[in-house]
Design goal:
Layout lengths: L8 E3 L2 E3 L2 H16 L2 H6 L14 H21 L13 E4 L10 H35 L3 H4 L1 H24 L1 H14 L9 H29 L2 H34 L3 H4 L1 H10 L8 H6 L3 H10 L5 E4 L2 H12 L12 H31 L4 H15 L2 H11 L2 H22 L7 H29 L2 H32 L4 H21 L8 H10 L6 E7 L3 H12 L4 E5 L10 E2 L2 H9 L3 H6 L4 E2 L1 E5 L7 E4 L1 E3 L5 E3 L2 E4 L1 H14 L3 E12 L5 E8 L4 E11 L6 H4 L6 E3 L5 E9 L16 E7 L2 E7 L4 E9 H7 L3 H11 L2 H6 L4 E2 L4 E4 L3 E3 L3 E2 L2 E3 L5 E2 L7 H20 L11 H23 L1 H11 L1 H9 L9 H9 L3 H9 L23
Helix pairs in contact: 1-3, 3-7, 4-8, 4-9, 4-11, 6-7, 6-8, 6-20, 7-8, 7-11, 8-9, 8-19, 8-20, 9-17, 9-19, 15-19, 15-20, 15-21, 16-19, 17-18, 17-19, 18-19, 18-21, 19-20, 23-26, 23-31, 24-31, 32-33, 32-35, 33-34
Length: 988
């Protein structure tokens, strides 16, 4: 099928990725639908009654063609890497004029096309009411069986709203609309189904496709309409689309059903769905969605068609990547976290409450009116006149929403609906005696409830950011449909227990009143405001956590582990993270102690389930056979006896997300934003942090303890809270790395030849390479060299890496017969540093936030997680009042952490300064103790005899002991990269 993906093709300014596949799939699917028509027309002599007829072979073949056609069309519409943001971007384009642009012919054309799509969307559920009588008669259904039609249809729309909302955020608005339309066409065959059960299946699928269009259309309208016109246009289109859909359904029933039976109404799915497909070139992709995914040229093209200019701003590639990754994650759970939680709950409750009113109370209203003594003709006449009078209310709702206040309009219509329902309750059975008052109440209920639903989806499409707009609107839409599922049986149960309107009206009034009040408290104004401004305001005005026991800066492994260990101590923390996970990060080879931390956290099963490669040890290839050695992963039992163990290699993007998700699942709060400055008391102690929210705006959060897990950003050190941050004064390094496929691994047979072990290739001092398997095919590879050496070569990062991988070590060259890079080449320069006084009143720095040591043996994640593990009980004691009067309440923790890091630093220094001696220690003299160091057991029973001997060889043992005993000298760097002239400036 290579010819299907030979090129990209632009249709309507937005590309089909495989146009031949899309149109071929569409054609095959339509052919499959048409293959159902012969059986239908064959039944013409029987009044098109097909009940009990067997399915013909041509119908079965048609079903297969429909499924295959939809799959092929989806393949043609979306690339394999759909939804992934582009990282190879040099500029970021910011929409500056879109929201201020005047309405153009292109805007009105889009309104007309999307309005047509809404009419088609509403028409199908509305058709249900017209097919029920005919299908009931043909199949001989009971009342309870007939009730299954609306139940499965509403269930389908509920599920479809969520699914298509997610797809809209991942695949794009335009693509999701086209896919929903294709599925819509496929459900045409409902009209040819000979059995009631098959009708229910198709009715469910029809509901799924129809339910998807509604939130997507509103998301696209919100993202393309000018700010000042957006509100009233979207509300008006929503209202008119609803009315138009019901008119189209009733008109089609009046024209076609008498002659062609009720089944013909389902066959209308084909021409109406095809109409949306035919209009696809007039449905542009959302420019905001395109910008978010790095498709700048397409976004500019779309915007220019609306008469909109774009202002460019130069930014670094790193900033662009961070911005894209921040907005990439599309997750249903994100709607209920952080700044989105309150607005989601209020909108979902309002949608559910409206569903109870519309599908519950109004559904039972005709029956209740008849029980009050009104005849069927009188009650139906009252409802018809009330509905007719309510239609102009759409114009009033649209004007109020767009020109007065979006938030106040929604609250007003919600409370007004509840008030009318209370009126029904208070007057009760006396309404039968006053027809005029009854008409007023019914009309008021229809107008007010229509105002609620007409504004609900436009508002939900405005309040969420671009990467959550589709799913946000989808969940809101689904809640209103779910109200339709639970509403009828709920009201039926109420009127059975308490006949009449009074109790049923109160039961329905309560949730919509509560929802309106909650929206009034938690919602915010959207009228005339840019979407980005709305999200900034939402973040800045969020009532979220203002006071926390512990605030964690950074949601990486250090922060996530810290939150989980704090949770084990009964402490709930708040994680402030500026990026959305998954995010790219260099891969990690976990040590044995790192694996034990994960087991202590109960995550071993999850690591196995995610199939992280299992690491049995580290093999170091020196520049001679004597310099090559293997250190296995070993554990210690309760008696400190060594035993075989293993740990994992991890792809950090997946591992970090797993850790953060688990921390949140165990009770930590997550706040999307960037910590901008610490809040400090007059005595210099830390009392909290200021956060710039992900969408804009700032928020101050007070806390008892700040746990700085910001990694190499060193948040507190850079803010001047800690002591001095000193960059290592040694030969400057640079790490250049990427990922490859097709590398040759060991094939097992013994632990030192296990296929997923870490391999280190040593050429000479400060010049080495790593080889870390990330999955069954991909290997992380990188080289570390002096910066001056890299600069001398005058090569691009890619060319330098490829050449070094071939020249650095002969064994490495054999393992990479062909270098196939599957990730862009990254570089990290100058990364060794140390921070003094990294603990104090109200703060603790963890892992890289205070110290980063040569990463040759991959200790970073282990050190971070273990320090977080040690910090949790210290924080618990502090919160309980311990050491509050001390200058540094966490002094013991600080010295303990640096003692462990010094063990690691000394071992690495010996490796660089005396590699032969180190190999002798690792192989023979201190094999078990060096194994402990490699495992990350750098805090227990240290310094061991091997570490003491290492320090003697490095001439630093007395210095280490003296510095730990003297706080004034504590933490002065004394490693091999230390120079005496630095000591004088360390404290400055």
């Amino acid at each position: 099928m290579d010819f299907l993906k030979s090129k990209k093709h632009s249709s309507g300014r937005v590309m089909f990725h495989h146009p031949v596949a899309f149109w071929l799939g569409t054609t095959i699917m339509v052919a499959g639908v048409i293959m159902h028509l012969p059986d239908y027309f064959t039944a013409g002599d029987m009044g098109y009654r097909m009940a009990g007829m067997p399915m013909s072979q041509i119908m079965l073949v048609g079903m297969v063609l429909i499924l295959g056609g939809i799959g092929l069309a989806a393949y043609g519409l979306f690339p394999r890497d759909f939804g992934r943001p582009t990282t190879d971007v040099g500029e970021a384009f910011h929409i500056r004029a879109m929201d201020d642009a005047p309405l153009t012919a292109a805007h009105w054309r889009l309104v007309a096309v999307l309005g047509t799509a809404l009419i088609v969307d509403v028409m199908k559920p509305a058709t249900l009411g017209f097919v029920v009588p005919g299908s009931r008669a043909e199949y001989g259904l009971t009342a309870s069986q007939v009730a299954m039609f609306p139940l499965v249809a509403l269930t389908g729309t509920t599920i479809g709203s969520v699914i298509w909302g997610i797809l809209a955020d991942r695949l794009g608005r335009r693509g999701a609309i086209l896919m929903a339309s294709l599925m819509f066409i496929g459900t045409t065959i409902c009209g040819a189904m000979p059995s009631f059960s098959w009708n229910l299946v198709m009715c469910f699928l029809m509901g799924m496709s129809a339910g998807g269009l509604l939130p997507i259309v509103f998301a696209l309208l919100a993202e393309t309409m000018p700010a000042k016109q957006r509100g009233w246009i979207t509300v008006l289109i929503g209202g008119l689309g609803t009315v138009g859909g019901y008119l189209a359904a009733s008109g089609a029933a009046a024209v076609f059903e008498p002659q062609f039976n009720w089944r013909v109404l389902w066959f209308l799915n084909l021409p109406t769905g095809a109409l949306v497909i035919a209009l696809n070139r007039f449905i542009p992709e959302s420019p905001r969605y395109l910008f978010m995914h790095g498709r700048s040229d397409e976004a500019r093209d779309v915007m220019q068609s609306f008469g909109v200019t774009v202002e460019k701003e130069k930014v670094t590639a790193r900033s662009v990547a961070a911005h894209q990754k921040e907005h990439y994650l599309t997750s249903l759970s994100r709607l209920f976290l952080g700044v989105y939680r309150s607005q989601t709950l209020s909108l979902v409750l309002l949608g559910l409450a409206w569903g109870l009113v519309n599908w519950g109370f109004l559904t039972w209203l005709p029956s209740n009116l008849r029980e009050m003594g009104l005849s069927a003709g009188v009650s139906n006449g009252i409802l018809a006149r009330s509905a007719l009078i309510a239609i102009p209310g759409i114009l009033i709702v649209s004007w109020l929403y767009g020109h007065w206040s979006s938030k106040k309009s929604m609250v007003m219509f919600g409370l007004a609906t509840a008030t009318v329902l209370v009126g029904f309750s208070v007057i009760g059975s006396d309404l039968a005696k006053n027809t005029g008052l009854l008409i007023m109440l019914v009309m008021g209920l229809l107008v007010c409830s229509s105002g609620v639903i007409a504004t609900l989806l436009p508002y939900s499409a405005e309040v969420y950011p671009t990467h959550l707009r589709g799913i946000g609107a989808g969940v809101t839409s689904a809640s209103s449909k779910f109200g339709g599922i639970v509403g009828p049986p709920l009201i039926a149960a109420v009127v059975t227990l308490w006949p009449g309107l009074s109790i049923a009206a109160l039961v329905t009034a309560a949730p919509i009143a509560v929802a309106a009040i909650l929206l009034g408290l938690k919602g915010f104004e959207t009228r005339g405001r840019r979407l980005e401004e709305i999200q900034s305001s939402a973040a800045a005005n969020q009532k979220g956590p203002k006071k926390k026991d512990v605030v964690i800066i950074g949601g990486g492994p250090a922060g996530a582990a810290g939150a989980m260990f704090l949770a084990k101590e009964g402490i709930r923390s708040l994680i402030v993270e500026q990026e959305s996970f998954p995010r790219f990060h260099i891969g990690e080879s976990l040590t044995g102690a790192g694996g034990k931390v994960l087991r202590d956290l109960g995550l071993e099963g999850e690591m196995v389930r995610r199939r992280h490669p299992i690491k049995q040890g580290v093999k170091v290839y020196g520049n001679s056979p004597k310099g090559t050695w293997f250190v296995p992963v070993m554990g210690r039992d309760e008696n400190w006896n060594l035993h075989d163990s293993d740990t994992w290699q991890v792809r950090r993007s997946e591992f970090d997300k797993m850790m953060l998700d688990e921390a949140v699942a165990r009770g930590a709060d997550l706040l999307q934003g960037r910590a901008t400055r610490p809040l400090r008391n007059d005595d210099g102690s830390v009392r909290g942090v200021e956060v710039r929210m992900a969408a804009g705006g700032t928020q101050e959060i007070e806390s008892e303890v700040i746990l700085d897990c910001s990694g190499q950003a060193t948040f507190l050190a850079d803010a001047g809270v800690t002591g001095t941050k000193h960059i290592g004064n040694h030969v400057k390094h640079i790490a250049i790395f990427s990922q490859v496929t097709g590398a040759i691994r060991d094939q097992g047979g013994s632990r030192d030849n296990y296929k997923d072990n870490t391999l280190i290739f040593y050429q000479k001092k400060f010049h080495w390479a790593w080889f870390i398997p990330l999955d069954d095919d991909v290997v992380s590879v990188g080289v570390v060299v002096p910066s001056a050496y890299f600069q001398e070569k005058k090569e691009s990062k890619r060319d330098f890496l490829v050449r070094e991988l071939q020249e650095l070590h002969p064994v490495l060259k054999r393992r990479l017969p062909e270098i196939k890079l599957v990730e862009e080449v990254h570089a990290i320069p100058d990364y060794t540093y140390q921070v003094s006084e990294f603990c104090g009143k109200g703060f603790i720095c963890i892992g890289d936030a205070h110290r980063f040591i040569d990463p040759i043996f991959s200790f970073g994640v282990t050190v971070a997680m273990r320090e977080a593990q040690f910090a949790a009980p210290a924080i618990k004691a502090y919160l309980g009042g311990a050491h509050r009067d001390q200058v540094n309440p966490f002094a013991d923790h600080q010295i303990s952490c640096d003692k462990g890091a010094d063990v690691l630093e000394d071992a690495i220094d010996l490796f660089w300064e005396q590699p032969t001696t180190f190999a002798f220690f690792a192989h023979q003299r201190h094999k078990e103790m060096i194994t402990d160091v490699f495992a990350g057991r750098i805090y227990e029973r240290q310094p061991s005899p091997s570490v003491s001997e290492i320090r003697k060889l490095l001439n630093r043992q007395q210095d280490r002991e003296r510095f730990y005993e003297n706080p004034d000298l504590y933490s002065v760097p004394i490693g091999s990269r230390y120079h005496p002239e630095r000591a004088g400036i360390w404290k400055e």
